[in-house]
Amino acid sequence: MNSLSITKFRAIVVACVLALATAAPALHAQAGQRGAKVNVPFAFEVGKTQLPAGQYVITRINADMLLVRGDSAHALVMVNHEEASGPTQRGKIVFVRYGEKYFMHELWSPGSTVYESCVESKDEGRVRTALATVNHKRADGVEVAVSVMPNF
What we know:
Elements: H1 3-31, E1 36-40, E2 44-46, E3 49-51, E4 54-62, E5 65-70, E6 74-83, E7 92-98, E8 101-108, E9 114-118, H2 122-135, E10 140-145
Antiparallel strand pairs: 1-4, 2-3, 4-5, 5-6, 6-9, 7-8, 7-10, 8-9
């Protein structure tokens, strides 16, 4: 190797080490990130994605977006922050049921008056409107307990 090649090689190695060193804290934070762990006993929709029944972990991506991650599927959901009149006693996820379809609707942390309200998808809006028009009926709320609450 000539001296120019060795210099380039050293520069590349130093750049890689610096890149890994700066990325390590972010990777460590993601690995230690806690989330809401929930066992959903029915298939449901989040945004445009249909998810099967099963175990899920819900983590925050940013202030207005959550990741719902299961063994075989995942989805992103946009949320709004809402204020309740009083705190909830336990962590829970509220689904709305229109006929046989379930949609993720709200996420509640224990002891908090602020909860996450999922932005309604176009499909949920169509199903809600169709059900109200045909049956003059509202959706049923279904609560699922959360085993570990997130650090929202």
